[in-house]
Design the sequence.
């Protein structure tokens, strides 16, 4: 677990504007202007179903689509498990977690079907990353839009606090 939350995911919180008067763009502007936040990234994160013809199974995972890849890279370190080679989110494929790759019986170059709500897309696997908590499929904004034939919209902010003490983080949420 230390690997997951110290080396792979370095953000402190996920901010979800449910039942909140903020729209996502306003939330992003407010978070970026808040001096209690040292870094942040807007992204689309939503549960999807992924299936593969190879394994004849489906798997429920999270899709993560950063608005700005550079902001995201400061908070999430996508890398290979063996050798820790850094992985970039490509414009022509998705990065999936190693466990998801094994479950679905897929590797780089294969395609999977991804269902988000009523939309289904054929998605090419461009890389496989290390991850220890939950299954993820990472896509660039452009690849997401072209694959699902829809416009991107962010849904959450991931943030790192300038003061990472528990009391400072508790105050942020109030």
Sequence:
């Amino acid at each position: 677990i230390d690997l997951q939350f110290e080396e792979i995911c370095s953000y402190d919180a996920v901010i979800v504007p449910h039942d909140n008067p903020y729209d996502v763009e306003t939330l992003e502007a407010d978070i970026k202007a808040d001096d209690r936040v040292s870094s942040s990234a807007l992204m689309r994160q939503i549960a999807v179903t992924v299936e593969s013809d190879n394994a004849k199974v489906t798997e429920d995972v999270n899709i993560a689509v950063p608005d700005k890849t550079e902001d995201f890279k400061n908070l999430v370190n996508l890398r290979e498990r063996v050798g820790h080679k850094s992985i970039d989110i490509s414009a022509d494929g998705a990065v999936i977690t190693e466990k998801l790759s094994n479950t679905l019986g897929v590797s780089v170059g294969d395609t999977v079907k991804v269902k988000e709500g009523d939309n289904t897309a054929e998605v090419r696997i461009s890389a496989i990353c290390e991850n220890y908590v939950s299954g993820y499929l990472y896509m660039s904004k452009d690849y997401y839009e072209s694959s699902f034939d829809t416009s991107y919209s962010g849904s959450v902010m991931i943030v790192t606090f300038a003061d990472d003490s528990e009391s400072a983080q508790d105050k942020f949420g109030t």
In short: DSSP finds six helices and eight strands in the chain.
